[in-house]
Every structure is written in C-alpha cells, then in structure tokens.
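Why run this: before we spend reagent on co-expression, it is cheaper to look at a predicted model of the complex and decide which construct boundaries make sense. The entries below are exactly what would go into the expression plan.
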Amino acid sequence: MEWVNAIVQGILLGGLFALFATGLSLAFGVMRFVNLAHGDLAILAAFLAVSFSATLEVNPFVTMALVVPIMALGGYVIQRFGFNWSIGTDPLPSILVTFGLAVVIQNALLERYSADSQGLDIGTFETRSIEFTDDIAVGWFPVLILGVAVVVLVGLQLFLSFTRMGRAFRATADDPSTARLMGINDRNIYAVVMAIAFATVAVAGLFLGIRQTFGPTDGPAQLIFAFEAVVIGGLGSLWGTLLGGIILGVAQTVGNQVDVEFNVLSGPLFGHLIFLVVLAVRPSGLLGRGRG
Amino acid sequence: MSPLLEVSELSSGYGDFRALYDISITVNEGETLAVIGANGAGKTTLLRAITGLVPTWSGSIRFDGQNLLSVPAHRRVAEGITMVPEGRLLFPSLNVRENLLVGGHGRRPGPWTVERVVEVFPLLAPLLGRPSAVLSGGEQQAVAIGRALMANPRLILLDEVSLGLAPVVVRQLYAALPQITAHGATALVVEQDIGQAMSVADQVVCLLEGRVSLEGPSAGLDRADITAAYFGMGHRTEAGSNEGQG
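The model came back. Tokens follow.
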C-alpha cells in the first residue's frame, strides 16, 4: 500500500514539476531559448509573494493576482529589450545572458531578504486532505497544483492549436524569417512567449513556497528538475512536459520509498537516474519529435 | 498607370558580400514584371530587399509613394507587399489550411479567403487538413502562392515558382496568375525560365551579377539580346563588370 501511495503522491508532485517546466518547454519550443534563470525566477516570485502578503496583510494565495501579472510583464520587457538580442543560431549567448541573470537574482534576493529560509503560509488548506484508506491520503493542495498544471498545459496547447496567435507562435517556431513575410513580428512573439513563461514559473514558485521553505539560492535545484521534466517528456512538446513532470515526480517519491525500505538511492537521485535512462535510450524524449 | 513600386539605385547584400549594385526598377500598378537572370544574379536578393528581409545598403524603395526603408519586414505585409519565397518554405508544423490562414495573419482587408484560394487552386480542396510536409512540390507551391494571397497583397513577389517542378505543373500554376491579378494584385515574377517569364510578363528586367543588364517590354525584346544579357556575352549589355569577358 505504501507503494501505491508513493505513486499517487508522485503523480501529484509531478504537477509541480510540470508547472515549473512549462515556461522552459515553451521558450525552447518556440525560440530555442534556454533560460538558466528559470528556477531563480520561481524563487523571486515566491519572495515577491512573501513581501506582498506581509505588506498587504493578505493570504499568499491572493498575492498571486499581483505577482503573476508583474512577472509576466517583467518577462515581456526583458525579452523584448534584452534577451531578443541574444537570440540567433548560436545558443551560447542566451545561456550566458540568463546565467548572468540567475546570479543577479540570487544576489539581489540575498541582499534584500538575507539567506534565511522563508515560507508562505496559506493556513489550514495546505494540510487538509482526503483519506481513502489508512495508507493513502491525498492532500487538497497537491491536487490543486496538479489541477492547475493540467489546466495551464492543456490551455496552452489549445491556444497553440486553435488561435490566430497560437498559429503565429508555431509558424515563428518553424521559421522566423518566413514568419516575418506573413506579417508576424517575431520579436513580439518571443516577448509574449517569455511573458507566458514568467507567469507560469511565478505560479510554480508560489506553489513551491507554500509546499516547502525556500531560500534565495534554491533556484538552480528547481531548474534541474524542470529541465529533467522537459527532456524526459521531449523538447518542445507541452504534453511531453506534463508527462515528464509526472514521471519525474513518481520517480522521486518511489525512490524515497525505496530509500525507506531498502536504504539505498534517495528520491531525487532516483529521478536523476530515470532522466539519464531516458536521455540514453530516447534522447528526443518520450513525446519529442526531434528538432525542426 | 502609376508606379506601384519604385526601386532606385538599390544596393544590398549579405555581410561583406554585395549582391546588388545600384538597381533601379519600376513596377506599374496592374502590370506584371518579370525579373530574369542566371543563378547568383541577385534576383532573390532583390525580392528579399523589397520585403525587408535583407537590409538596404543604399538607394531607396518606394511603395505607392511611401519610402519603405524604415518599415520593418513584418509591417511591409500590412502595406500590401507579400512574397512567395524560393523553395516554398511552408511551415511544417502547420497543416495546409493553417498555412493559408497564417498568410492572413495581418488581417489586411481584401478579397482573399481560404475558399477563394481553393477556387483558384482546386487541387488544394482535398488537402486542407494534411500536414504541409507530405504534399508534392506542385501542391506545396500552390499552398505557398495561396498563403501569399491570403495577405490580400497589392504587390505579390513570386520567387522561382517553377523551381524543381514538372513543366506541366508550372503551366498550371502560372495559369492562375491572371486570376490573381484580376483580384487587384500586381505581380513581380522572378524566373530562371525565360520562356515562362516572357509569356506572363508585360515588362522584363534581366539581372547580371547584381546589375540590370537589359530591360524593356516583353513583347519588344529580341531573343538574342536577352541571351546576351542573361549570360553576359557581347557588347549589348550595360553591365560594366562584363567588359573584357566577351
């Protein structure tokens, strides 16, 4: 029964990983852009929520209404007037630029909030759960996270498939120069993509901050999980990202269970191993179509 | 007839490589101009400069009297300039209908709809739901032309429509040109196939190594003159770089 519980909890944890990975997956899918500051942006969003909920004296959940639009706007501006200059056939400039941004965010957070761990307290909802059996209880909050992840990813996929803007996203992803011939402003598309990426990672950062305590230097670890989810699922595929997040979540919780029972392999290590196996056996990811 | 497109003294290229030397051409509204020339003569670069995909080094491009130099590529579409690029360049992630729809992304008002494109190219009717990558070359070219028409252009630039296609297919595609111009679009056609170019165009311009080597009404041009201008032989060319080659 512990094993079933581990899998259920893993699927729920996967929702958070998938939400983390959404922006990474979208940015890579549309503009082949690798954002190394992605994890730090999540932590930045969580700290913004800490500040807002303290000054406005509201539940951290409520601050989402402020933090997400602010992050989205930040994403648009930084892509339009910053990252766009680093986009080209060579992926190195974008990696360097976002690595620099990651360092800046971490140090700014240390400067402003100190190295102390923080948490976002949303009250009793966080611990409320439904008990199915003595061994299996499902928390409402993890269910909410998974639900949001599914809604975000399905929503994005529908947006890409059926809207005029979504069509423009896909055309730009295929061939930005020909997209310009269609009257599509690729620079603007990239900025909108980054706005969506920042918004989704802000939601993920808030959920993370509610789930566990966090510090200014916790970003890179989140980035690694997000990357693993994207690569397991397949680069540039949003369905793959959801699947990758869930596989990674299950791998970690099952790994934790293995650790408890047999005292080998910690949870995150188990997740990394799954990632390596997928990378070795199917480098394009489970649902990836390869490049182009 | 008023000039719709006036390119004067245009120089352009890629990086350090200069592909166009002071090119001047005029396209009148309602007329079809064919630009011919050998590989590397600068035909595609000329079209890409008109659409804004390659920068203009010097000279000017005026469209309906407006200077285009400060207008970025994606906004020139809104002005009514559209291009069927060499090699079709359909979007592989989009199916045929979506490829057509994305052509109308700018929502410029005009007569063209997916239905009207299918009327002009009936072969597309059963293909609308297919991925664009599985089509034959001729079908892809029809989609590429349809996609450009969806922008409701005043000027449509067709780059090497015949490239890699069977002659019968090329004739079918060019047969649609009168329907296209009948809807108010002026066409600028780039071709390596001189016969095809002469048969559809009112005016012909021949490029040679980035310069205009011959121009005139297609009806009045002599085959020998064209051959000379095309290959850069003899003394009839205006291109300075060819002195001493004949």
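The interface with chain A takes residues 51-53, 72-75, 77-78, 82-83, 85, 89, 91-94, 98, 101-103, 105-106, 108, 147, 151 of chain B (CB under 8 Å). The longest helix of chain B spans residues 137-149. Bring this page to Monday's planning discussion.
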